[in-house]
Amino acid sequence: MGQTAHEHGTTAVFASVEKACRERGLRLTPLRRQVLELILQAGGPVKAYDLLDSLKTSHHSAAPPTVYRALDFLLENHFIHRLETRNAYVSCFHPEASHSGQFLICEQCDQVTEINAPEMTQGVLKAAAEQGFKPSKEVVEVYGTCRKCIE
Amino acid sequence: MGQTAHEHGTTAVFASVEKACRERGLRLTPLRRQVLELILQAGGPVKAYDLLDSLKTSHHSAAPPTVYRALDFLLENHFIHRLETRNAYVSCFHPEASHSGQFLICEQCDQVTEINAPEMTQGVLKAAAEQGFKPSKEVVEVYGTCRKCIE
DNA sequence: TTTAGACCGCTATATTCTAGCATTCAGAGC
DNA sequence: GCTCTGAATGCTAGAATATAGCGGTCTAAA
Ligand SMILES: [Zn+2]
Ligand SMILES: [Zn+2]
Ligand SMILES: [Zn+2]
Ligand SMILES: [Zn+2]
């Protein structure tokens, strides 16, 4: 049951993020809010410099640190994920629980789906345990062809 | 059974790569050979620009494309892997078989171990199948603490 | 109201990677 | 051997991604 934040409803995600900020005493400043909005609206992976360009239209003083600091905040608090293989950022569709993201990335249409695959996590844990390795974070990005593009 | 190319013996890896090149009609030119040597000697993840600096000492004309083209060759033919989360390159300890790499990365000592965890791959395949997604390549990089650093 | 820390504006710079074009070289066919 | 072709390399430039650092401003707590 993978889904994108877009399908999940950006308003719902937004509400969830706001709630989390209130509860954890985090400051969802206008800048951070706007960057999150832009990512949600995109409905897919967005590049930092594309965010910067968007920001600039309404925020003349925006510079790289403007965007990267907002992204850092959103990443640290697990409101978005970074796609390591693409240098891109996607919203998290269930920001309540802290987790590493697992992604299916279609090489045909570039659609990205965040999944929650416990078997995969179990496999990671088992393999790590055999090495005496204590995992703290897993990066899983699977490339291939999505259902739509197979048809 | 994780191991680094270093532990596996750089000469053995080298022999294996040379064999593969002969069989597949690939040209392991001096430049490519030297870059592979540098990666093997490093015994861990190496950055492209560190390779470039090393190359420059013996090869005055070396420039970024010099390194990146050699890396591309080694990557395409599965003689090395790229660590996506670190923009770094590591040698593959069994370059005979083509495969996506799976890595355990220690946050304390930066040691990287390539593992081969079928359960993990199975988990990926199962999760992908549920989405109707046909995987072609998986990127798995697990961060945590290695056995040595736990002690 | 003071104050410490978080946040932001701004400039500069670091880091990673690629485009493009000319030259050289290796191997295939003659 | 000679020629041709595609692969490999030399070289310059520049794109894309990310960070350092410093001073000013705002916020929330004491
Ligand atoms: Zn998520
Ligand atoms: Zn697709
Ligand atoms: Zn490998
Ligand atoms: Zn360690």
Give me the count of strands of chain A.
6
* CATH C-level label of the largest domain in chain A: Mainly Alpha
Bound molecules: zinc ion
Number of helices of chain A: 7
Shape of chain A: globular
Report the C-alpha radius of gyration of chain A, rounded. 16 Å
Kindly report the average pLDDT value of chain A: 92
Classify the secondary structure makeup of chain A into a structural class.
alpha+beta
Span from first to last CA of chain A? Answer: 19 Å
A few lines on this structure:
Chain A has 7 helices and 6 strands. Chain A is α+β, with helices and mostly antiparallel strands and 151 residues long.
Describe this entry's structure for a reader.
- Two copies of one chain form a homodimer.
- Helix content of chain A is 48%, strand content 21%.
- With 151 residues, chain A is of the alpha+beta class.
- Chain A has two domains: 5-91, Arc Repressor Mutant, subunit A, CATH 1.10.10; 102-150, 2-Layer Sandwich (Dna Ligase, domain 1).
- In chain A, the strands form two sheets. Chain A has a three-stranded antiparallel β-sheet. In chain A, strands 5-4-6 form a three-stranded mixed β-sheet.
- In chain A, a hairpin with a 4-residue loop joins strand 2 (80-83) and strand 3 (88-91).
- In chain A, helix 3 (30-42) crosses helix 5 and helix 4 (48-58) crosses helix 5.
- Chain A starts with a helix and ends with a helix.
- The model of chain A has no long low-confidence stretch (mean pLDDT 92).
- Chains A and B meet through strand 4, helix 6 and strand 6 of A and strand 4, helix 6 and strand 6 of B.
- Bound molecules: zinc ion (4 copies).
- The site of one zinc ion (ZN) has 6 residues of chain A, from loops.
- Chain B binds a DNA duplex (30 and 30 nucleotides) through helix 5.
